[in-house]
Amino acid sequence: MHYKRRPGYEARSEVFGRVCVKLGLTPNVLTALSFAFSILSGVLFWKREFLLGTAALLLNALTDMLDGATARAGKMGTIFGGVLDHVSDRYAEFFVLMGILLSGAVAPGWVLFAQFGIIIASYTRAAAESIGKMETCAVGIAGRLEKFVLLVAGAILQNFVPQYNPLLYALILMGLISYVTSIQRLIFAKKQLGERREGE
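Predicted structure:
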């Protein structure tokens, strides 16, 4: 998600966060649920249960959204919680794509192509924000939301028209836009940081 759209998204999602607070749910519990749904999604994809796997993936995305919303609504956000959320997201992506790889629906090379693209886009942002001390580097043609939509669409279509390999094309597109996003983030970081030296 582009950083300029983030405030609006956070304001809208906080409504659901307040509901979670009233139900006694904490951000870390929701992160754990999101993590569990990602494993379930991976297992279901492995078994070629693409519709059920997509349902679990949607629950993963829902609980992932709710953990941040709950943290903001209940003023329960911690720095470690943010770190845990980001790490959990990377594990979730791994489990889901590993399930697709093990299903045999997509050749391993293309799964790895998409996996590394997702990782490098995320790592480029993390490096710019940690090493470069940038407030944000969440720029580019695609964030997690766009790639999530592609994956969901590919998985649903795979269930109905497997002869056309829609999941393969979804992963190829996910990989391509991830690499482009990484390059865009590098260019953005270069413009923001200029020739600033280490320690400045």
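Summary: Residues 6-191 form a domain with the Four Helix Bundle (Hemerythrin (Met), subunit A) fold (CATH 1.20.120.1760).
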